Amino acid sequence: MHEHEFIGLQSKTLKGYIWSEACHLRQYMFWRVLSVLAVTPFTILSQRIVDDAIPSRDLSGVWYFTGISFALLLLHYLTMNRAVAALSDQTQEIFRNLRGRIFHKLNFMQFRFLDTVQTGRLLSKYAFDTSNIEATVIQIVTGIIPELLRTVLLILTLAYINIWLVLIVFICIPIFAIVRIYYYRPIEDNNQAVRVAREKMTGQANEFISAIKLVRGFGQESVAKEQMGVLSDAYSDMRVSQMNLNQSLGYIMFTVVTALSLFAVAFCGWLVIDEKMTMGALVALVGALPICLYPVTMMTQFSLQYLLGAESYRSIKELMDSRYVEEWNGTQHLQPMRGEIQLKDVSFGYGDEDELAIENFSTTIQAGEHVAFVGPSGSGKSTLVSLILGFYAPRKGEILIDGVAQSQLAIKEFRQDCAIVMQDNLLLSGTMMDNIRFGKPTATVEEVRQAAQHANALEFIEELPAGFETKVGERGVSLSGGQRQRIAIARALLRNPKVLILDEATSALDYESEKSVQEAIDYLAKGRTTITIAHRLSTIRSADRIIVLKGGHLVSEGSWNELAEQEGAFKDLLNAQH
User: Fold this and answer.
1) Which phi and psi (to 5°) does residue 436 adopt?
2) What average pLDDT does range 129-144 have in this prediction?
3) What pLDDT sits at residue 496?
4) Is the overall model pTM greater than 0.70, yes or no?
């Protein structure tokens, strides 16, 4: 499958999705149907014992019919055992695939979409919504379908015994339909409200947890608590309403089903007295009626789970059907890639109606050239890098890599020839080895060590208690800023990129850390096309060319010495730092 071809959810509804995935459950359904067929004769066997064997005092007949019943019960046990074993593997295969589809889609969503959606809401779709659908599917295939089949067979059996029994069973159907129709819409609306409230709550909680240092640093714990309290209260109110509706449905149906059972026994008792029904038929009904009514009770209880699952399916389908995917469908590979980058009259704004962040920008970065972007905050430096990497598509103009239009490139392969070292590099919560090897998963231990050595990271890593197997801690919080940067540089070195992007990689470091990191960066940048986004101008003295940006426009460019001698934006920036 091409990276940009998504296996979407073709079915419009959860019911259609379950039906489309039924092929994966063939083995389970085969054994489950056999288990249902095995217990179907119980009703006739109990009727024969009461009507034939007992009146004739035929003890051997009693044991004969009982023996058959035990044999069928053993068959039921064996087939259920096979069915359950098949179910676990087959259902998990379905939901592994579903989670895989969601994660694959997220990896190719436009950044302008990801910028506007809270991470917690996406996690909710990936984790909570798939769990809801899984619970719904399992209830259907393990409960609803087998019980409905058993009920149909049992009704046919009751019709064979006495047609009056079928009439009694069918009394339950319109009652169930009325209750279901009455409660369906309020429960569906409430489930949607619960889902939205939960996504808002988890999304906001994820933001505050991720920014917990900011919250504490500003002493705003009470503000965060208040905001979370409002969202938590809204979710709790929706859940209270949801539980009330569900509980109301439960006790109403219990009352109705119990009343129907009492009525059925009384009615059959009258038929026995009137000699229109045998005592064996009454005993058969007493045994069969709970089974016939069970799907009614199950369906009413299941309606809430189904609506939860259906709402979760709509939530996931909303994501899977989203058109906000990266627009890159190119297939051309650069073999080998040289690293020349050309921007022609590029304009870009983050929203269709937003002010342009980059306007009519043109330049050519030669292969192996070191170019620095400088300018005040908001001048478009980071935006240009995002455009070069294809995180966003230009609104106007084009970008060419080695003379090939970005739209024609196999964008994933292009990015694999790039590496980025940022001001605050994200480290994963694995070992040092895992984090460095993320740049090249197939790298050997020796290659990782060499990358760490060239990044000035080997010495401090080997001083750690477990060396390369030391756990980094989530987001690298157990390391200093300089150590995190050197791990990120080692990761980039291991990748051996043709294009290197340095996004203010040393601006947050103290002098000693900056010196060590800068040495590693200088080694990393040799022979590569290097783009530096710089706030601290002293770090770009060695750049071949400096491009000065202001308001998304290129206002001047040249070497350090050329720009430092000219009156203009660069000299203003230089003077501001002295």
Assistant:
1) -70, -40
2) 80
3) 85
4) no
SS3 assignment, position 338:
coil
Q: Which domains does the chain have, with CATH numbers?
A: 14-320 (1.20.1560.10), 341-576 (3.40.50.300)
Whole-number pLDDT of residue 129? 82
- Which among 70, 63, 75 is positioned nearest to 37, based on CA atoms? 75
Among candidates 486, 531, 543, which has minimal Cα distance to 504? 531
| 91, containing H or E segment | helix 59-106
Note every long-range contact of 565-573, with CB atoms under 8 Å and residues 24 or more positions apart, other chains counting: 569/375, 570/374, 570/546, 573/374, 573/375, 573/376, 573/537, 573/548
Does 205 or 429 have the greater pLDDT score?
205
| Alpha-carbon span 94 to 100, nearest angstrom | 10
Q: What is the pLDDT of residues 9-27, one digit of tens each?
A: 666 677 677 777 766 778 8
How many other C-beta atoms are found inside a 10 Å radius of the C-beta of residue 385? 20
Q: How far apart are the first and last CA of the chain?
A: 55
Strand pairing partners for 405?
400
> Could you tell me if 238 and 193 are in contact, meaning their C-beta atoms sit under 8 angstroms apart?
yes
Q: How far is C-alpha 565 from the chain's CA centre?
A: 54
Work out whether strand 396-401 and strand 341-348 pair parallel, antiparallel, or are unpaired: antiparallel
* Helix-, strand-, coil-residue percentages of the chain, each rounded to 5: 65, 10, 25
Within 162-211, where are the H helices? 163-170, 172-210
